[in-house]
Amino acid sequence: MMDQKTIDIIKATVPVLEEKGNEITEAFYEHMFSEHPELYNVFNQTHQKEGKQPRALAKLVYQAAAHIDRLEEVLSAVKVVAHKHRSIGIRPDQYPIVGENLLWAIKHVLGDQATDDIMKAWEIAYGEIANVFIQLENQLREEVKENNGWDDYMPFIVDKKVQESDVITSFYLKPANGGALPEYLPGQYLSLKLEIPGETYTHIRQYSLSDAPGKDYFRISVKREDKNAMYPEGVVSHFLHDTIKEGDQILVSAPAGDFTLDTSSNKPLVFISGGVGQTPLMSMLKTVIEKQPERPITWIHAAKNGKVHALNQDVKKAAEKHENLKTFICYNDPTSKDLEMNEFAKVGHMDEMWLSEVIDNRNAVYYFCGPKSFMAAIYKILKHWGINDEDIHYEFFGPQDEMLEEEAVTV
């Protein structure tokens, strides 16, 4: 338990963290990886190069410091990270390594400003913060085991591989041991751990489950990302698209994530997605149709055109069977074939005026996912409409306020 003196010291350092948080976390990661290169196998190196990981940690450290005497107020942010930690395999014995290197980075960046009292206070505070994460992650691990899940990673066979569009392919995964799959909540994701030829370290990536629970397979739908020398995000997606074949094995963690569909409510649902962001919403759509067929649903999706629009047949089949499902497709740059078939509702970008026309009942629960600027735009529109926070749900892999601060650009 922290005494008042420690709390006061930590809170007094908040302005410094605001000013030098990114510098501290960048120094932290550089030093930690130099001391423990094996951790390259755990952390997303693309996010490191883009600065996403240091920014995310800086935000979380700042929030924890500002709420050090009431950490329950940042529990929602902690839960998002804890789900990911459980999914990728972070262990309690790794927290001392993080703490040691974070304290080193604070001292390194602040220099003489980091007095003995400050460093001692931060050592105590980090222990408190780490314990919150460890307890929550242990709880998540127990819940997974109770739900027929497994710890760490398990071999799965690629049972089927289906090209959904020019850029998105679905992978149907079944346990290599032939065992039953755990139930999962629609909207959750898997972590895949991949050994890629030519790569020094393993790569771990999260992909949303894109089908309803209760099947004898997991389905993920993966977009082929662009490759470039600086940010090789495409290394993993290209490996899955080009190298992984039906019958191959890959390592998969049990489902995780707290962006999930609430089936206890009967309020109308509105799903809004851009590009591959529809994948967790597809799992939700299929689930609500199975479990709440009378619940009104509005499905709104934006894509460049029909060539890159994946899973459209899934939505069409659902709409044919369920009169309570209304679908609206927006193409920014339709092809001549798209224009000929005329199966979309709007040419150009989604905007507030068009959304207000297709959403006939704003008293609904909203779930949305897509590129960061897209989500910022949707969030801004919903808040302008006066939608309550408890009816707004979105999936964002990163600090949530980073998405909210993004310039809102419709897609």
Automatic annotation (TrEMBL):
Catalytic activity: 2 nitric oxide + NADH + 2 O2 = 2 nitrate + NAD(+) + H(+); 2 nitric oxide + NADPH + 2 O2 = 2 nitrate + NADP(+) + H(+)
Domain Globin as annotated: residue spans: 1-138
Binding-site residues for NADP(+), renumbered to this chain: G275, V276, G277, Q278, T279, P280
Gene Ontology molecular function: nitric oxide dioxygenase NAD(P)H activity
UniProt region (Reductase), positions on chain: 148-411
Residues given in the record as heme b binding sites: H85
The keyword Oxidoreductase is assigned to this record: yes
Site features described as Influences the redox potential of the prosthetic heme and FAD groups, chain residue numbers: K84, E395
PROSITE patterns: FAD_FR, GLOBIN
UniProt cross-references to Gene3D superfamilies, sorted A to Z: Globins, Nucleotide-binding domain of ferredoxin-NADP reductase (FNR) module, Translation factors
Pfam families with a match to the protein in the record: FAD_binding_6, Globin, NAD_binding_1
Listed SUPFAM superfamilies: Ferredoxin reductase-like, C-terminal NADP-linked domain, Globin-like, Riboflavin synthase domain-like
Swiss-Prot/TrEMBL cofactor(s): FAD; heme b
Cofactor mode of binding and number, as noted: Binds 1 FAD per subunit. Binds 1 heme b (iron(II)-protoporphyrin IX) group per subunit.
InterPro entries attached to this UniProt entry: Cbr1-like_FAD-bd_dom, FAD-bd_FR_type, Flavoprot_Pyr_Nucl_cyt_Rdtase, FNR_nucleotide-bd, Globin, Globin-like_sf, Globin/Proto, Hmp
Cross-referenced PANTHER family: FLAVOHEMOPROTEIN (PTHR43396:SF3)
Protein family according to the UniProt entry: Belongs to the globin family. Two-domain flavohemoproteins subfamily. In the C-terminal section; belongs to the flavoprotein pyridine nucleotide cytochrome reductase family.
Function of the protein: Is involved in NO detoxification in an aerobic process, termed nitric oxide dioxygenase (NOD) reaction that utilizes O(2) and NAD(P)H to convert NO to nitrate, which protects the bacterium from various noxious nitrogen compounds. Therefore, plays a central role in the inducible response to nitrosative stress.
Name by which UniProt lists this protein: Flavohemoprotein
Species annotation: Scopulibacillus cellulosilyticus
Record lineage: Bacteria, Bacillati, Bacillota, Bacilli, Bacillales
